Amino acid sequence: MYSVTADNLEISYGTVKALRGVSFQVSRGEMFGLIGPDGAGKTSLFRILTTLLLADAGSATVDGFDVVKDYKEIRGRVGYMPGKFSLYQDLSVEENLEFFATLFNTTIKENYHLIKDIYRHIEPFKTRKAGALSGGMKQKLALSCALIHKPSVLFLDEPTTGVDPVSRKEFWEMLKRLKQQNITIIVSTPYMDEAIICDRIALINEGKFMQIETPQNIISAFGKKLFAVTGDNMSRLLNDVREMDIVSSAFAFGDEHHVTLRNPMLDHTDIEAGLLEKGCSNIFVKEINAGIEDCYMALSQ
Amino acid sequence: MMNEVEQDRQQVIKVEHLTKRFGHFTAVDNISFEVYKGEIFGFLGANGAGKTTAMKMLCGLSKPTSGKGSVAGYNIEKESESVKANIGYMSQKFSLYEDLKVWENFRLFGGIYGVNDKEIGPRTDEMLAQLGFEKEKNSLVSSLPLGWKQKLAFSVAIFHEPKIVFLDEPTGGVDPVTRRQFWELIYKASDRGITVFVTTHYMDEAEYCNRVSIMVDGRIDALDSPRNLKSIYNAANMNEVFIHLAGGSNRKAD
After folding, report:
1. Are the Cβ atoms of B172 and A161 closer than 8 angstroms?
2. Which among A80, A180, B175, B187 has the fewest CB atoms less than 10 Å away?
3. Does one domain contain both A209 and A255?
4. Domain B1-86+163-254, CATH 3.40.50.300 — does that match?
5. Rounded to a whole number, what is the distance in Å from the CA of A157 to chain B's nearest CA?
6. pLDDT single digits (tens) A155-165
7. What average pLDDT does this structure show over A225-239?
């Protein structure tokens, strides 16, 4: 039995179609990533699966229960961390956790083992009001609250937005441990280094899944030679690269530019020659393997 | 005539021993640095390291406990109103009025910052044309996708041609395509001589800055070009530099 299924889900807000027939299945204990721009329909999908929103068409199940008919059953079985911080800001850390435990007829003590690794980071500050916590701490508390009733499926809508790189790394270490306990995780993220940790990812755009694949398969399907280009004045260099007729795409990637060419027969020497002709200096071009972000950029064109 | 190099090194932010305490807690601990005209300066740090408190002081919204600073040539403590008039500010949390139309936001912010009435209309059209947003002039901001809002918010923040624009996590939650479009706007502003002071949690964006500082527990523990920082800390990328420096923070709660 699949942990989560969706069959042709559709929803519109007025004239805007937020989901245009989305179907997928997620297995028990799988970590499933949703990747796409704002407005792609990710949050609508989360809200339908957590029974907070009714789809216009299609059906979905969570833990084998129908999201419309059996919504009460589902609500007791899922944990949901919305994109917007939704805990009580004027309750303390501990009060928030107690509140959610009580709502689900359990106690902090009963499921402490589940949240221990996460909660111990914030436990020293349990009397502090939730509103006074930093971004990383708020997310750890929100995750603790979403877990306290031992859900079988966890829905995380951009849990690490606004979180610094150190806390982000810690947060994903925690998710990996939860996965080992066979909790199914559906997570959306704008960070491609997080997407690659998922078992499978769905690239979603304008309410449709463009692809559902393992990160490795998405990367190996890139299908073009990719080059990393560096040189003096990177901002000008990007414009110069884009002006070259042989170039198909060029994007800034940290301290280098990633470039693809129209003709598969050409290689790095052709890029170098073109840039030297334009008067660029200290040019260095090498062929590299594509990463998941290169694939995202290519699919979004 | 001032030569190009000298002009490039014109200081637009200068901070000396800036400190802010709340009771016994030192949020910003004796920081000193300069930012130069047209520079893209990345202001990095873990959540709670003191970035927001420091930025509030630089924007004239909060008084330092000790130390001093000048922004756009004005003293941040004694001339905070002049500081405010000469900077632009944009954050991910608040950017535009959702229930106003696109042009109304330009009209409002232009008016607040004292842009001449006759100039506001044409300048609005010009900026919308540059963004390719002419068709959305009469749309309510609430109806636009986040990526568009962020680009508009940036244009509103530099509408009055400030010397410096402060961007507080402008690309939080934005997908890789839109983030790159946003950074192209930053480059254009910087090419026009506007200094960009930006915070981000995306370490690939840190690489796009001319220089970055990394705050840890209220202090600036590193300040250099991304290239030099990577070489100093023997790191492959800025993410490794950041984790090396901020991973040892004592200020876990804030």
Report:
1. yes
2. A180
3. no
4. yes
5. 10
6. 999 999 989 99
7. 93
